């Protein structure tokens, strides 16, 4: 049960001063709270024996008031210190998770659903916050506070009466332990179901246009309803066990009260204890109810926290597929990029993504990469980004193997515009500044001109301050592509990779962007993958891929003379454009 605290020892070790203060303050408050019942018992005895004077009564009331003020003040301090510490733990774990997500390669996200990762970063972290806050409170109250109460009852009133009243405790400990094991298993299942539900909601929100287009609203609603019912059922199973804690403790506490009252009355009758001591004993027995409840809450919170921490640690324990070397080689600029007999196969795939690929790219060159869908164009770019492990052969920059270079450094050289443009739920300005944090409006307008986006700016309601919505939902496909191109332009990278980045723009716009691209990128390396061959006709070198192999290469003029796939495809596209024009 307490293994979750052992697993979190790194955090408690880091903030030991905070938790030590909170626990000590909590113990002091517990000790202070034990004094008033004793004062009440003493006052009752003095009233019974007619020895209570007004002066003594005033002293007792003043002492009582002072204890209340001290208890309130110290309670505030431990409460603030303990629960703010729990929030620090949640913040720390959330930061660790986010940093971990940012280091992960696509393989990780293929194996883990987004909804489940969100559940671990929200619900599971909340459970850990409960463990680091309320869990520590119940731990202290169910152990130290309970021991203090029992000690005062035994040493100051009667050991016999105390032992008799505590006979139900071993039964409670056994039952609570059984409940805890069941809670852990069922809570894990409930959290997994919630993760699946999260993932389904995300997919529905992202694909809402497709759902409407195919009139699948009712089917999607029914699927959501079914998953909601599953989450509900699993949480009900947790609640069923959770609901057993309080009644079980209430019954056992009732037995304690019965024993205490019956046996205590007998001891008073035989003058073993006084009436005031019996009253004090019953007040202490009432105070013992919360520590007994705390035992149940402790087991509940610890088991939930343990289950959640296991899920979070499972995510954090996933090692990145691609790492920087311990002692990376240093390069100032990438002057040459060389692929030498490169083979690559995606994890779990049967066919190779790249096969025996050899090509040399010099700084300042523009290289076009074309081929059928699935030919390996994006796969080629991903080798430079080092998104996947398993590259065979040699990929060198300035004659140095890319695996010997710092990962962050190599990626800082690259500006990448993927096939699926990712825009953030921010303004147009902020999306472009993602490429250069301190970019001025003047610089932004310049790259927007290069991306042929200035005309579109006129129809945006707030210009650069227009919110693009989630994933750029308020922009058209072509507009999103041009904002993404502008973001890459403003970065002014050593290597610019456009992965079919102009597929959604018309021929005229593409021609303008290419014209600006040639001027802007003079002296720097540019790689362009495209299905529309007009995007690469200006390239210094063009690679034609098929099933990951280079089947043709050369300039546009050279490839047209070879009368292979490139020439056939180019003529076909030109003919199509002429027919559209007519």
Helix content: 55-70%
Roughly how many Å is the radius of gyration?
35 Å
The CATH class label of the largest domain is Mainly Alpha
CATH fold descriptor of the largest domain: ABC transporter transmembrane region fold
In the CATH hierarchy, the architecture of the largest domain is Up-down Bundle
Write out the CATH superfamily name of the largest domain.
ABC transporter type 1, transmembrane domain
- Beta-strand portion reads 5-15%
Please give the oligomerization state of what you see. Answer: single chain
Helix-and-strand structural type: alpha/beta
Major sheet: 6 strands, mixed
Number of strands: 10
**Broad shape:** elongated
Put simply, the count of helices is 23
Mean pLDDT: 87
What are the low-pLDDT stretches, counting only 5+ consecutive residues below 50? none
Number of domains: 3
The separation of the N and C termini measures 77 Å
Sheet with the most strands: spatial strand order: 6-7-8-3-9-10
